[in-house]
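Figure S7 source data.
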Amino acid sequence: MNYPVSFFKRKGDQIQCLVCPHQCLISEGKTGICRVRTVLDHELIAINYAEVTSAAVDPIEKKPLYHFKPGKNIVSLGSFGCNMTCDFCQNHKISQQRAKSEVLSIEQLKAIIDRVENNAGVAYTYNEPMMWYEYVYETAKTLKHLNQETSVVVVTNGYINQEPLFKLLPYVDAMNIDLKAYSNSYYKKICGAKLDSVLETIKLANEHVHIEVTTLLVTDAFDALKEVEEISKFLATVNKDIPLHLSRYFPRYKMKNEETNIEVMKQAAQMARNYLNYVYIGNVAEIDTHTYCPTCHERLVERQSGRVNCLIREPICPRCQSDISIIL
Ligand code: SF4
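Tokens for the predicted iron/sulfur cluster complex:
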């Protein structure tokens, strides 16, 4: 469905989209880099409003969010379009092209959310939610007005301008933001974007919602230890309680490098723990992903073979009484 875009500037016969830092200048009939915003009859519109390509009920840990409502399910939705072009994208069939979709109204979405058991709310994920901004904003706002208890989660690459982000944040509870590397040249070469805007998103989002960060350790694309140290140092300046997920890479799409060596992942996680309180390894079977108290190392949340057992009822370590950064 077509829907008007709110963030734009007219420049002669063209319209500049101001949703994300690409700030595409678009002529009549052409699209921006995301392929979902176009100029039609002199108006800037998004073509993917309410168009759902993927929907599932996932454990919230799969987003990944480990410190937000552990053990809950979450209705997860995606559309098509992305403003990055990552060579390793595992969702390239919906991120880099228009895919088969079905319209999902706000009423239908609300009914699904209400029907699912043990459900935290809704997660906008799979493709880049900010490229689905108009629907994400309208549905998140409506769902929150209908029931404040419905959690809204956004799983994003963080490449969005501050004005639309700021407008959306009051209706969001938690975000997982990709920080793909700490080097601008990596962002430019592998993802077709720039690092700085992602760092700004992390800083701004951290002031308003619960955030967790994910970094995919792509073999041979960078020096993993050096990169993870830079990322960890940066996150520690924002908030050392931000959980960092170091995710194992597997060959996907255009990137054919070998999967990440697990020993390298363990070393990277150890390095990150010098700076951050909560560091997890993801996409690796049979590895410790429990949550421990950063002060006394008491086990607080157990995660094993897809099962989650939260051992605390309040965000306080029962052994040493330290505050734990977790939303239960
Ligand atoms: S949202 Fe799309 S059209 Fe708008 S600036 Fe970003 S890539 Fe360009």
